[in-house]
Amino acid sequence: MVPAVIANTAPPSARRFDRLDAWRGLAIVWMACFHFSFDLNMNGFLHPVQNFYGDAFWTTQRFCIVSMFLLGAGAGQAVAVDAGQTWARFWRRWAQVAGCALLVSLATMQMFPQAWISFGVLHGMAAMLIVLRALGARLPPARLARSPLACAGLVLLAGVAWMLPHWVALPFFDTRLANWVGLVTRLPRTEDYVPVLPWLGMMLAGYLVASLLLGHARAFMAGAVPAFVRPLAGLGRWSLSFYMLHQPILIGSLLLFRMVFP
Question: What is the pLDDT of residues 34-58, one digit of tens each?
Fold first, then answer.
């Protein structure tokens, strides 16, 4: 039910953007705190018991965290295209994201048999990264930053992607085989659901903003971060690894605590 991680798709040889890495780091720290709260609640440590599925305090946090992830992923893809990322390198990184998405599905089948994750944030990110990479091939950041018409078109596309689920909802899309599109009449029973629509709009927004910054305010993107923020930047460079490891560690720690202090 909770968000995952920003995919860092920039080539290793590209210059690091510490501010973007820090954005990723902040997002995954917030995510870990959210996850730990969820784990505490699920294991009976929170009193009163919290409703992570309906309480605005938790659902608003989830919305903000997922938004940070996808804005960062869109920005990261703009940086990657601008740095000359090849399709081969893109597919290698994409395979890591997609492989981790598959592992999430397999793990949640065991933990939540009735609500396993068939299309969570990693699944959505894998699908949307293909769209952004295809867009980058046609409209790289440098070209986008020079064309007001292209910017307006991308704003329109992002807006339509964001609003389309509010305008169109069909029962056909309510099954697990089709709900990844997002045009559902009811939310599926799953612990995480990040469909292509509307969330592609958020990732396109990240691509657009980063492209404009790279073209007109590159120093802002490339600027240094304060010393106290550097750990976040370092953590953001390993966001996918952090995501795949943090929940087993958190859940294992809680189980060990219950064994030691029954």
Answer: 999 999 999 889 999 999 999 999 9
